[in-house]
Amino acid sequence: MTNRKRLLIAKSVTAAGWALLENRPDIETVTYDSAMPEDAYRALIPGAHGIALYTRPFGPGELALADAMTVIGRVGVGYDLVDVPGCTARGILLMTTGTANSVSVAEHALSLMFDLARRTAEFDAIVRQGDWSQRLVSPPLDLYGRTLLVVGFGRIGSRIAARCRALEMTVLVSDPYVDAARIRDAGCEPVSLAAGLARADVVTVHCPRNAETTAMIGAAQLARLKSGAFVINTARGGIVDEAALHAALVSGHLGGAGLDVFVDEPVPADHPLLDLPNVVVAPHMAGNTAEALDRMSRTAIANILSVFDGAPNRDNVINKEVLG
């Protein structure tokens, strides 16, 4: 068949995504491993019309080789490793998977709150060590009645807000790009970041990392939090300044932190935050439940096919200016 489209597909794409390609003889698929050497990965790019991108970057170096590329379909929602202006300049659509993992990330953020408040890791250790005499030394806490600050009220932030309202928490929202009326309609209170931090028992971050949000929560912002407050970050590493967070935890000002993301990933084993007993960590897995991986795989492939078929799914396009 002539005019076949060549599609690069990350090995992590599940059967749910591959199923959409079963009756597509017009598409040639090439699987790549996200852990493969950079030169081998880049060697696949020339002549490819699309890529289902998981954790590999697609920056200026990759774009320089993308002589036939029309669409980059992220198997996920973040795109900080993609050169968006470069894609736009070349007329390459960048697409994400919308709400495919929003529920999963919201659930994970909530689980980190519970882990910290109910001292899950500490109590697990007490039972395994047979030292029950320590169980009342530092009692767990309720989330009920606490005040939560949600930073970013998009697909994930709005979902964690709803779940925490069901726990009878007071939910504050800081997002300058969302209309205050929409926040109020969701039963939450719109606030500035500074005002929200001063009132929060828990702060959870759900905004993209960019020039505006990098180190947005640093030493000065953490100092505004109540003594004993918890900080949750399931968004991107670097939005919360790691050195400042470490200092606030060591000083005793903060009660704990739940982190799914770090500036450097995989996080170095000697990272100072990993030495602290009141820090709960995960390897950037908040949005990667079995169900979410299926939803993201299916949506990523559907996005790419929509472009190949001449009818792009506009809702999932990041650089809509390419559409004209």
Question: Care to describe what's here?
Answer:
The protein folds into 2 domains: 5-100 and 290-323, NAD(P)-binding Rossmann-like Domain (Rossmann fold); 102-281, Rossmann fold. Helices cover 32% and strands 16% of the residues. The protein has 12 helices and 12 strands. It has helices at residues 15-18, 38-43, 60-63, 84-90, 102-117, 120-129, 157-166, 180-185, 193-199, 219-224, 242-250, 290-308; strands at residues 5-10, 27-32, 50-53, 71-74, 93-95, 147-151, 170-174, 189-190, 202-205, 229-233, 254-259, 279-281. A 7-stranded parallel beta sheet has the order 8-7-6-9-10-11-12, with helices on both faces. Helix 5 (102-117) packs across helix 7.
Q: Can you give keywords for this protein?
A:
324 residues; alpha/beta; Rossmann fold; 2 domains; 7-stranded parallel beta sheet; 5-stranded parallel beta sheet; 12 helices
Task: Please give the structural blueprint.
Layout: E1 5-10, H1 15-18, E2 27-32, H2 38-43, E3 50-53, H3 60-63, E4 71-74, H4 84-90, E5 93-95, H5 102-117, H6 120-129, E6 147-151, H7 157-166, E7 170-174, H8 180-185, E8 189-190, H9 193-199, E9 202-205, H10 219-224, E10 229-233, H11 242-250, E11 254-259, E12 279-281, H12 290-308
Parallel strand pairs: 1-2, 1-3, 3-4, 4-5, 6-7, 6-9, 7-8, 9-10, 10-11, 11-12
Helix pairs in contact: 5-7
Shape: elongated
Strand content: 15-25%
Class inferred from helices and paired strands: alpha/beta
CATH superfamily of the largest domain: NAD(P)-binding Rossmann-like Domain
How would you state the average pLDDT, rounded?
96
The largest sheet, given as strand count, sense and whether it forms a barrel, is: 7 strands, parallel
Number of domains: 2
Briefly note the CATH topology name of the largest domain.
Rossmann fold
